């Protein structure tokens, strides 16, 4: 499974400028992509898409005020993201595998307790812990794994893996509705929590931090036994020069964090409130859920498209085009047209929400490389996620002062252009350590 050791042969380096074989990830490589897909599913489920049903479920269970519970989402997200920095630091120190096991088990236990909270304060605490664990574990672990396994094909690998977020958008709401009907609200959360704990145990036997640990090579490209052994030794002994103080003074760190952070803000701002938006313009709840699912299925297709474009045209160029595409999507959301136009807008929404996670993670890998990705990502992901959770404050302000979502969408268009400008100034060179066989290819 994967490109195995070839004793006695020198490292095989493709000709300069030649891309690694598309989608040739090897058996173990596809396995890591599958694991990452499930992790991204859970990240989207418990930090964004789940809000379409989580808030309402506790309103139905306890009779609490919807607006009050929704308002908890922003501070819970901020505190959760700040706490998630600690998990990202653990990945940098101990590796993604150990963090995946412990984080998923802890997330599952938290979910079981969350279903049984009895006060709004407990709800806010539970939501904060869920954001902390889901962001720190389910967001940071797969990005680190795939950048380490596929330093030059990370765009395609992430394109496949981030389909998990799209599948979540398509399936989570109806799945949770089924669980609520079958088990009741409290026990439904217990079922979810138990499943997450089992997933954590399985991860111990499934995940490996590097392909070299399994005798496979980065990008599944042929390499000699000696080269792989040297890679593994270097990876285990590498001490990243990108300390916190260095990163906080690094121009590209801020450009990536803020540039992709504002794009993530507008992404979550659309997907987390799409069903309420559709209901507000006249569609009934069941039709809105069906439309939501349609957008998610489109998103799954475009997850791969943005990954392909990343590899084909480069992360920075693709990200700038993505920013302008999202601005057009937000403009469409401002128009109240026919059913046909609404479905066209849903097509645009699905294509837009597909790209952010793949492109943001790939950009970090392009600038800092597989050896220094974890060190850089612990800071970048934290700052970017802080922007992500600000979307709830923007939407709440729009609803409070204008009574609808339009003001938020206009502000989102402005942020789309801000993101494009910041991304334009990101370096095109890799600043981190790279493997010798990749030097000839340059930074992606």
Automatic annotation (TrEMBL):
<keyword id="KW-1133">Transmembrane helix</keyword>
<keyword id="KW-0812">Transmembrane</keyword>
<feature type="transmembrane region" description="Helical">
    <location>
        <begin position="407"/>
        <end position="426"/>
    </location>
</feature>
<feature type="transmembrane region" description="Helical">
    <location>
        <begin position="380"/>
        <end position="401"/>
    </location>
</feature>
<feature type="transmembrane region" description="Helical">
    <location>
        <begin position="158"/>
        <end position="180"/>
    </location>
</feature>
<dbReference type="Pfam" id="PF07690">
    <property type="entry name" value="MFS_1"/>
</dbReference>
<feature type="transmembrane region" description="Helical">
    <location>
        <begin position="98"/>
        <end position="117"/>
    </location>
</feature>
<dbReference type="InterPro" id="IPR011701">
    <property type="entry name" value="MFS"/>
</dbReference>
<feature type="transmembrane region" description="Helical">
    <location>
        <begin position="186"/>
        <end position="207"/>
    </location>
</feature>
<keyword id="KW-0472">Membrane</keyword>
<feature type="transmembrane region" description="Helical">
    <location>
        <begin position="25"/>
        <end position="46"/>
    </location>
</feature>
<dbReference type="GO" id="GO:0022857">
    <property type="term" value="F:transmembrane transporter activity"/>
</dbReference>
<dbReference type="InterPro" id="IPR050327">
    <property type="entry name" value="Proton-linked_MCT"/>
</dbReference>
<feature type="transmembrane region" description="Helical">
    <location>
        <begin position="287"/>
        <end position="307"/>
    </location>
</feature>
<protein>
    <submittedName>
        <fullName>MFS transporter</fullName>
    </submittedName>
</protein>
<dbReference type="InterPro" id="IPR036259">
    <property type="entry name" value="MFS_trans_sf"/>
</dbReference>
<feature type="transmembrane region" description="Helical">
    <location>
        <begin position="254"/>
        <end position="275"/>
    </location>
</feature>
<feature type="transmembrane region" description="Helical">
    <location>
        <begin position="66"/>
        <end position="86"/>
    </location>
</feature>
<feature type="transmembrane region" description="Helical">
    <location>
        <begin position="123"/>
        <end position="146"/>
    </location>
</feature>
């Amino acid at each position: 499974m994967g490109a195995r050791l070839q004793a006695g042969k020198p490292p095989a380096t493709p000709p300069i400028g030649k891309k690694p074989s598309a989608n040739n990830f090897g058996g173990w490589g596809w396995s890591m992509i599958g694991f990452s897909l499930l992790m991204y599913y859970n990240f989207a489920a418990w930090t964004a898409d789940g809000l379409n049903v989580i808030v309402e479920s506790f309103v139905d269970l306890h009779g609490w005020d919807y607006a009050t519970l929704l308002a908890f989402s922003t501070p819970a997200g901020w505190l959760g993201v700040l706490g998630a920095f600690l998990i990202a630091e653990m990945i940098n120190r101990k590796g993604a595998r150990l963090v995946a096991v412990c984080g998923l088990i802890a997330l599952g236990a938290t979910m079981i307790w969350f279903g049984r909270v009895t006060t709004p304060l407990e709800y806010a605490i539970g939501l904060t812990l869920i954001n902390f664990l889901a962001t720190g574990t389910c967001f940071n672990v797969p990005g680190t794994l795939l950048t380490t396994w596929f330093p030059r094909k990370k765009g395609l690998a992430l394109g496949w893996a981030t389909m998990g977020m799209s599948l979540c958008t398509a399936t989570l709401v109806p799945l949770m509705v089924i669980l609520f009907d079958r088990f009741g609200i409290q026990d439904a959360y217990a079922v979810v929590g138990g499943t997450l704990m089992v997933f954590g145990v399985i991860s111990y036997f499934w995940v490996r931090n590097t392909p070299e640990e399994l005798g496979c090579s980065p990008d599944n490209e042929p390499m000699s036994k000696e080269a792989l052994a040297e890679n593994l030794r270097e990876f285990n002994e590498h001490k990243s020069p990108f300390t916190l103080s260095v990163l906080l003074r690094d121009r590209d760190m801020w450009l990536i964090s803020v540039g992709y952070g504002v794009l993530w803000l507008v992404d979550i701002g659309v997907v987390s409130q799409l069903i309420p938006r559709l209901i507000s313009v006249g569609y009934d709840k069941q039709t809105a859920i069906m439309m939501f699912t349609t957008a998610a299925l489109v998103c799954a297709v475009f997850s791969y498209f943005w990954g392909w474009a990343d590899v084909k045209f480069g992360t920075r160029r693709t990200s700038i085009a993505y920013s302008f595409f999202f601005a057009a999507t937000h403009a469409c959301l401002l128009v109240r047209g026919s059913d046909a136009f609404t479905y066209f807008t849903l097509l645009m929404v699905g294509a837009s929400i597909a790209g952010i996670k793949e492109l943001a993670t790939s950009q970090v890998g392009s600038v800092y490389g597989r050896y220094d990705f974890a060190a850089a990502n612990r800071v970048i992901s934290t700052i970017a996620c802080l922007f992500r959770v600000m979307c709830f404050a923007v939407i709440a302000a729009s609803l409070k002062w204008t009574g609808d979502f339009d003001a938020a969408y206009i502000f989102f268009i402005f942020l789309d252009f801000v993101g494009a400008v910041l991304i334009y100034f990101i370096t095109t060179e890799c600043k981190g350590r790279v493997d010798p066989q990749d030097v000839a290819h340059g930074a992606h």
